[in-house]
Amino acid sequence: MGRYVLRRLLQAIPVLLGTTFLIFAIVYALPGDPLQALAGEKRVDPVFAAAMREQFHLNEPLIVRYGYYIRDIVSGNFGTTFRGLPVSTIFEGKFQVTFKLAMTALIFEAIIGVGLGLWAALRRGKWEDKAILAFTLLLVSIPTLVSGFVLQLVLGVKLKQSTGLALFPVAGVGDGMRSYLLPGFVLATVSIAYLTRLTRTSLMETLRADYVRTAIAKGMPRRRVLGRHALRNSLIPMVTYLGADLGTLMGGAVITETIFNLPGIGQQLFQSVYLRENPVVVGIVTVLVLIYIVANLVVDLLYAVLDPRIRYE
Amino acid sequence: MRVTKGAQIVTATALLALAVAACGGSGDTSSSSSGTAAAGNAGAVRVEIAEPQHDLIPGNTTETAGAEVLNALFVGLVDYDAEKKPYNRIAESIESTDSTTWTVKLKDGYKWHNGEPVVAQNFVDSWNYTANGANAQEGNYFFGSIAGYDELNPGEGKTPSATTLSGLKVVDDKTFTVQLKNPFSGFPTMLGYTAFSPLPKAAFESEGKLKADFGSNPVGNGPFKIAKPWKRGTDQTISTVRNEEFKEGKAKVDAVDFKIYTDLATAFNDLRAGNLDIMDQLPPEAIATAKQEFGDRYIEQPSSGIGYIGFPVESGADYAKNADIRKAISMAIDRKTITETVFSGTRVPADDFISPVVAGYRQGACGEACTYDPAKAKALFQQAGGDKMSEVVIGYNGDGGHKEWIEAIANNLRTNLGAKVTPKPVEKFATILDDLGAKKWTGSFRMAWIMDYPSPENYLRPQFGSGGSSNYSGFKSKEFDDLLTKGDAAKTLDEGVKYYQQADDLVLKELPYIPVYFYQTNGAYSQHVKNVKIDPFERIDLFNVEKA
C-alpha cells in the first residue's frame, strides 16, 4: 500500500504542473493591465510601472514567467502581491477559516443528507419519500446567493431585531464556531440534496440484494441488518461524493464567504481576481488543487476499509 | 486480515490529518491571527471600511479606507471647517508674501503617541520620504509643486540626484519653510490631506528609510492610537484606543474598531443587526429603505466626485469639436431623472465644474447649459447642423457599472435631439484614456474626477489646463491658463477663488466636458452612537462621535 500511495503522489506532480500552468496562463491572459488596476481610474506612473514590470518579470514571455513561478514555489515562496504583501501572509489563517467552513458544511451534509436519504429509502414510495424528494429539488434550485442572503436577513438580522437574540451572527468570525453555522449550512445546501438522493438510491439498491434478504430471513434484528449489512455496503458512493465534495466546498466558498464576510480563501480569491492580484490567484488555486488531490487519495484509501475486496498492490 | 485493516484505517486517518494540517497554511502563526480577527474592544465604536490597500503609512495612502484609519491616528497642519475652508490644526500659522515661499509655524503641545513632541523636522522627514520617487509612495505626486521635486523624480531609468527636497528648510523646532516651484495661493488647502501628515522619528530606521513594521504598528499624533499591530491581509479588525494625552482634548469614545468588509450589503446587514455602528457609504440598493429605517441616523451629503461626458475637442469627430452641439447635448440630458432613478438618489444633478464640497462652488453656475430643455436643445442641435453629422459615440468602461446611465443618456439624446447614438463599452477605462492620448478616440466618453485636495484649482487645471495631467479632452485656452495662474499667485485664498471662478465660467461656456452628476455620500449609523459627521474627504469625524 505504501507503493500505491507513493505512486499516487508522484502522479499528482504532472497534474499539479498542468493545472497551475493553465491557471497561470488564464489569469495573465485576462484583459486589462494588472498594474493599471493598482491606479484605479488614474494613469499609472510610468516609472513605477517600469519598476514593477521588472520586479514581476512582466515583460518576459509567459513560459519564462511560469518557470520563475515554479522555481519560487519549489523553494517554498509564493511570491508577493502587486501591493507588496507576501502571498504567504495572505494565506495565514485564511485556509483555516475556509477549512472550518467546509468541515461545517460537510458535517451538515453528512448528517442531513445521509439521514434524509436513509429515511426516504426506508419509506420508499410513501409520502415521506415524496416529500424528501420534493425538498431536495427545492434545495438544488435555490442558488447559494439567494439562500445566503435570505437566511442572513431572516436568522441574522430580523431575529436579532425582533427578539434581541444573536443566535446566528450576521457576518465575520467573531463568535467562534457559531459564526460558521449559518454559512456552513448555506454552503452545504446544494450538496445536501445530491447526497440525499445518492444515499436513497444506493441504499435501496443494497436493500434488494440477496444477502440482505438472507439476513432478514435469518431473523437478524432490523437495526443490525440496516447498519451492518445494508448501510455499510452502500457507503462507497457516498464516501466518494463526500471526499470529492470537500475540494468543491473549499473552492466553492467564494460566494458564501463574501456574503458572510468570512476572511477565508474564497473571499480572498474573489478580491484577488477583482484586483488583478495574479500571484495570489495562482497561489490559491495551486493549494486548492493540492487539497483536491489529497482528498481524492484519502477517499481511494477509505475504499479498502469499507470493502475488503479492494486491495492496493 | 484485521491487522491490515487497522493499519489502513490508521494510514487513512493520518493522511486526513495531514490534509487538515496542510490546509492551515502556515499553521504556526494562524492561531494568533484568528484570535485577533475574533477579538476587538468591547464597547468600541465599530466603523465599516474596505481593506486598506497598503500598510498604515500616510504618504502611501490615497484610497478612502486607509485614509479613514489614518485620520484617527494622525492629525496634520490644517483641517477643514464646515465652509470647506482650511483652519490651522498643528500649524500656528502658514504665511507667505509672494505665494511661493511659505513659512509654517507650529503650535506647542502636540505630541506623538510615544511622548515625543511634534517638531518641524517631523514634517520635513515625512515629506522628503514621500516625495522621493525611489520609495514608490502613492502620495508622491502631491509634492510635485515643491522645489526640488524633479531632482527626486527624474523619470524612468535615471537616478535621482538628491535625497531631499531642496524646497524644505527647517528653521527651528517650531518653524520650517517651503519653497514652491511656482506661486500657489491655495497651498495651505492641500496640507490637510493625509499625504502631508508628519512622521515621528520613531518611524525611521535611518535617514530616509522607514522601519519595516511601522505601517502595521504606526506611532501617530492623533486622537486615537493603535491598540495592537494590524496584520494587513489577515486581520479583519483594526483596533484603536483613545489617546489620553491629545492636545485638543479627549475624544468622546474610548475606542474605535475599524471592521473590514468586502461586501457592502453584508456590512449593511451587520449595521441593521447592531453589530456595526457607522457606515459612510451604503450599498446603492439599500438607500431607499435606509432612509426610512434609519430616519435621523441616515446621512446624505455631497462628496467630492463629479461625473462627466467628455469630448475630444481638438481631435474628435465633428460633433465633438462643435461647442454648440456640446451644449445642445448637455441640455438634452435629463439629469434629474437619471440621478433619481438610475442611481436611486445616490447622485445629484451637477451644475458646476467645481464640486459643492469645496469653497468656490456656485449653485447653478452652469446655467442654461445644464438645464433640461428638450425643445431648446433640439433647436440648437439643428441650428448647428448636428443632424447632418455622424452618429454620437459614448465610450465607457464596461467593468464599472456605467452601462445604465450611459444608456439613459443615449436614450435622452435619441428622443430629444433625434440623433443617432451608439454607446460603446470597452474593457477597461485605461483603454479609452490610452486611445485619447494617441488621438485615436474621436467620440465622446464618460469621465469622472475626484479631488486630490479641496481647492477649485484641483477641478480645473489637471483636467482643462494646457498640459494638465488629466487633460483628456485636449482643451486649450491661453485665457483659461492665465486666469488659473492669476488665481495661484493671488495674495489670499478668497482672491484666488475669484479668478478660478472666472476660469470656471470659461470652460462652462466651452463645455469640453459636460458635468452630469455630483457623487454623494450616503451613510447611516446605529442607535449606539450620535453626533456622526462626515467631512468632504468622506472621513468620519471620529473625534466628536459620542456614545448614545
TrEMBL record, chain A:
The species this protein belongs to is Sphaerisporangium siamense
Where is each ABC transmembrane type-1 domain found?
95-303
- Gene3D superfamilies documented for this protein: MetI-like
Lineage, opening ranks: Bacteria, Bacillati, Actinomycetota, Actinomycetes, Streptosporangiales
Q: Which PANTHER family match?
A: DIPEPTIDE TRANSPORT SYSTEM PERMEASE PROTEIN DPPB-RELATED (PTHR43163), DIPEPTIDE-TRANSPORT INTEGRAL MEMBRANE PROTEIN ABC TRANSPORTER DPPB-RELATED (PTHR43163:SF7)
Membrane topology field = Multi-pass membrane protein
Look up the record and report any one GO term of the cellular component aspect. Answer: plasma membrane
Name assigned to this protein? Peptide/nickel transport system permease protein/oligopeptide transport system permease protein
The family annotation for this protein states:
Belongs to the binding-protein-dependent transport system permease family.
Compartments annotated for it: namely:
Cell membrane
Q: What is its main location?
A: membrane
Q: What InterPro entries does the record tag this protein with?
A: BPD_transp_1_N, MetI-like, MetI-like_sf
Q: Which PROSITE patterns match?
A: ABC_TM1
From TrEMBL, chain B:
Q: Where is the Solute-binding protein family domain?
A: 85-470
- Report whether Ribonucleoprotein shows up as a keyword of the record: no
Q: Name a biological process GO annotation.
A: peptide transport
Keywords of the record, alphabetical order, are:
Signal
Q: Which InterPro entries match?
A: Peptide/Ni-bd, SBP_5, SBP_5_dom
Which Pfam families does the UniProt entry name for this protein? SBP_bac_5
Q: What is this protein called?
A: ABC-type oligopeptide transport system substrate-binding subunit
From which organism does this entry originate?
Sphaerisporangium siamense
